[in-house]
């Protein structure tokens, strides 16, 4: 059993809060050196990197908008300049801009697709180019590189009032599987994690008041997820313990994707 990520370099996008933050912590705890990417909130990202260093690990915080090609290229260049290589990408950044379909603006549609889908494409492309450059010479893991996309249960569960978001995550599923099919022979592993309802800032407003109870009706396992639930899955997918897992989505959702509304005859 080897969950260790010692001598490996990981880049986590959108790691100044929520799932990205927990993934960066988890990867560092498993021994990886971590790049903590942030878009606009440098402070929590810097603080997390400092905390990891204090605990004996290696980490830096780097800014960059994943939907901007130049930013992404710079982010990867700075990662290589700092750590010399890249072994693990967690393409985590994402956002919601919710409204009923009739009122959804083109700007809100575009923004969500640009960050949640185009951002994942740009980061995956930059990562695999770097993995190809490194080839087999690093010898720190059985695969020459690992890409983990942060998807959502909404890659399969349609979501009224959030059609831009659900479309972006449906796109992430096809993006992940198509890349995995195309480059699998190169020993680059590509997978997704699809969380259900996890307590982070992205859904803070929907958990207010009666919100949590409403969400719990959709979770057979009976609790809202913690960011660490997702981080644990990401660390496993990044490690050699999952070396034969390729082109798969790991649902971390307490059973949300079981359509619990049909439990009692529908
Ligand atoms: P969050 O709002 O705490 O984190 C989102 C992160 O993405 C933030 O750090 C934000 O700065 C970053 N980000 C946004 N736009 C960016 C950009 N242009 N460039 C770089 N970074 C950017 O929310 P959470 O929950 O941690 O979300 C992380 C990912 O998990 C997202 O892709 C989200 O869709 C996904 N997810 C979350 C679930 C949940 O229940 N919390 C469930 C399923 C998926
Ligand atoms: C969304 C959250 C939501 C969860 C379950 C995620 O993709 O970002 O807001 O709570 O799915 O519906």
TrEMBL record:
Pfam families: adh_short_C2 (PF13561). This is Sugar dehydrogenase. PANTHER family: OXIDOREDUCTASE, SHORT-CHAIN DEHYDROGENASE/REDUCTASE FAMILY (AFU_ORTHOLOGUE AFUA_5G02870) (PTHR43639), SHORT-CHAIN DEHYDROGENASE_REDUCTASE FAMILY PROTEIN (PTHR43639:SF1). It comes from Rouxiella badensis. The keyword Oxidoreductase applies. InterPro entries: KR_dom, NAD(P)-bd_dom_sf, Sc_DH/Rdtase_CS, SDR_fam. Belongs to the short-chain dehydrogenases/reductases (SDR) family. Gene3D superfamilies: NAD(P)-binding Rossmann-like Domain (3.40.50.720). PROSITE patterns: ADH_SHORT. Residues 8-208 form the Ketoreductase domain. Keywords: Oxidoreductase. GO terms for molecular function: oxidoreductase activity. Transmembrane segments: none annotated.
């Amino acid at each position: 059993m080897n969950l260790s990520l010692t001598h490996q370099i990981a880049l986590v996008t959108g790691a100044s809060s929520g799932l990205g933050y927990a993934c960066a912590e988890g990867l560092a705890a498993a021994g990886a050196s971590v790049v903590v990417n942030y878009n606009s909130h440098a402070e929590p990202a810097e603080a997390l990197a400092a905390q990891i260093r204090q605990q004996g690990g290696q980490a830096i915080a780097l800014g960059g908008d994943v939907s901007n090609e130049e930013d992404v290229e710079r982010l990867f260049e700075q990662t290589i300049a700092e750590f010399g290589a890249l072994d693990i990408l967690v393409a985590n950044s994402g956002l919601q801009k919710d409204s009923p379909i009739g009122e959804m603006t083109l700007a809100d549609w575009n923004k969500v697709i640009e960050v949640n889908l185009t951002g994942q494409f740009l980061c995956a492309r930059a990562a695999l180019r770097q993995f190809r450059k490194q080839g087999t010479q690093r010898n720190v893991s059985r695969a020459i590189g690992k890409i983990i996309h942060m998807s959502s249960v909404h890659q399969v569960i349609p979501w009224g009032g959030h059609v831009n978001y659900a479309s972006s995550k449906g796109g992430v599923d096809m993006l992940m599987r198509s890349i995995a099919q195309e480059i699998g022979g190169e020993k680059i592993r590509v997978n997704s994690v699809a969380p259900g309802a996890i307590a982070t800032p992205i859904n803070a407003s929907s958990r207010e008041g009666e919100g949590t109870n409403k969400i719990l009706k959709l979770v057979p396992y009976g609790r809202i997820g913690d960011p660490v639930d997702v981080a644990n899955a990401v660390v496993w997918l990044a490690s050699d313990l999952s070396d034969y897992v390729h082109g798969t989505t790991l649902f971390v959702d307490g059973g949300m994707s079981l359509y619990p509304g049909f439990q009692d005859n529908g």
